Amino acid sequence: MKTAHLNNEQFTAYLLDTDSNPATAAHLVACVICREELELFRQSVSSFNSLTLAWSESRPAAQVRRAVPPPRAWFPGLVWAFAACLMLVERSP
Ligand SMILES: [Zn+2]
Questions:
Q1: What pLDDT does 24 receive?
Q2: More confident residue, 53 or 63
Q3: How far is the CA of 13 from the centre of ligand 1 (A)?
Q4: Which pLDDT does position 63 carry in this prediction?
Q5: How many domains does the chain have?
Q6: pLDDT score of 2
């Protein structure tokens, strides 16, 4: 009779919550192959977590995006000239 061993999803669920599935826990007690595979899986996850943490810590901390200055008027002098013209028009009889 062929024994169905645990898969990666079951290993993940077990590592997240060892009490989540009694059948998985029972299989791990009885099956040395899956216990060894679980340990390798646990080491791989731990190694991945360590590597990603080291990578993120090696990144420069101040990679904050520079503030984008507010858009400027295309021709600031032209805006003032237009305002002056409006004032002249209002004052003219
Ligand atoms: Zn097994």
A1: 95
A2: 53
A3: 15
A4: 61
A5: 1
A6: 55
**Per-residue pLDDT, 73:** 59
Question: How many angstroms is it from 74 CA to the middle of ligand 1?
Answer: 71
Task: Tell me if 81 is assigned to some domain.
Answer: no
Through-space distance between the first and last CA atoms of the chain, rounded to whole angstroms: 107
Tell me whether residue 16 is in a domain. Answer: yes
Q: How far is the CA of 52 from the centre of ligand 1 (A)?
A: 30
Domain of residue 23 covers 8-58
- Give a yes or no: residue 64 inside a domain: no
Instruction: Tell me, in angstroms, the distance from the centre of ligand 1 to residue 49's CA.
Output: 25
What average pLDDT does this structure show over 49-69? 80
For range 15-34, the mean pLDDT = 94
> In the structure encoding, which two tokens stand for residue 77, read together?
């002098």
42 lies in some domain: yes
